[in-house]
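QA checklist item 7 of 12: single-chain prediction sanity check.
[x] sequence parsed
[x] length recorded as 390
[x] structure emitted
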Amino acid sequence: MTEAEDLAAWLRLSLTPGIGNQRARQLLKTFGLPQTIFESSQSALCAVVSERSAEALRDPPSGLEELLHTTCDWLEADTQRRRVLTLGDPAYPRCLLDLEDPPLMLYAMGLPVAWKTMADGRTGLDLAQAAGLAIVGSRNPTPQGTRNAQDFAQALAQAGLTVVSGMALGVDAAAHTGALQAHAAPGREGIATVAVVGTGLDRVYPKQHRELAHQIAQQGVILSEYHLGTPPLAAHFPQRNRLIAGLSRGTLVVEAALQSGSLITARMALEQGRDVFAIPGSIHSTQSKGCHALIKQGAKLVESAQDVLEELQFAQCVAPAYTPATEPEPVDPEGQALLHALGFDPIGLDALQARSAMATPELQAQLMALELQGLVARLPGGTYQRIART
């Protein structure tokens, strides 16, 4: 059987109405290969699935030829960096086989070394269960949350962990960015970061992440269980979270509201026997409520990347130490005093003026100077928040 014929058989199995991942695995367990399934008799198929499903398997599904043509063209456009990994492929990430619902197929795009590392089980994606960390959180984080995600990801990547996330807005993007920055250092090799997306790999969602997607494909891997051409449907994103958790030994939640999808990833990580970490925040911040709920339920409170490394028994890999010199200091005592008055909770201009006893022109000038130094962020609603490096 040619590669195209084999791909066609897997695509046909995945597209057949009424045959999901679970029934498909039952069929594969009984018959071996997809092509054998389609060559089997109606009675043989009915011994495994319902009569209706058996009838569906006898006829090629609509759209198969078009998808096969599209997929072959996509693969041929970059044979080194693009792959379709099936359950029968030795490069299929072994850690995902432990899931209750592993995808029949994974579309992959990224570093050619990933295919070898996934197959040999010594480094890269297949060691994500042992050396990967998912970093997830709000799509609309506070400036401090964005800084935390990027700084944690950079430190953990420098220590040797593979950062896994979903390439969404907010915390996901900051985590990928931090991991890419860590691997930009001279002499760094291997997979910088893994993005698990909820669309076909011929699409970038959100669109403003086109450049980020390009960087990840150059220095890491992008994965999707969805066929080419699949749009960003809302139901796909919670579903893909099981892969983010499954590719990682632990999941770090940076910021999350109580109804955040990040809590779905954390729950899936717990169900898979993985560690869950959460960064605490202000008791007044909506974006901290989800992390605080996780901590109450037993998630590990972390204040530094080293906390994560030690919990994962990566104590031999020490996170780069933070020193005050890495954070710019205010240029005058008034700036120092204003930072002290700000604290770390969001505060309105009137309350800050009362707390600092500064005149309005002086206060606004100092806030602008601190914003330019990256020490203060202006939030929606006219409030301000001090930003600290982690």
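[x] summary fact logged: Residues 121-130, 321-327 have pLDDT under 50 and may be disordered.
[ ] second reviewer sign-off
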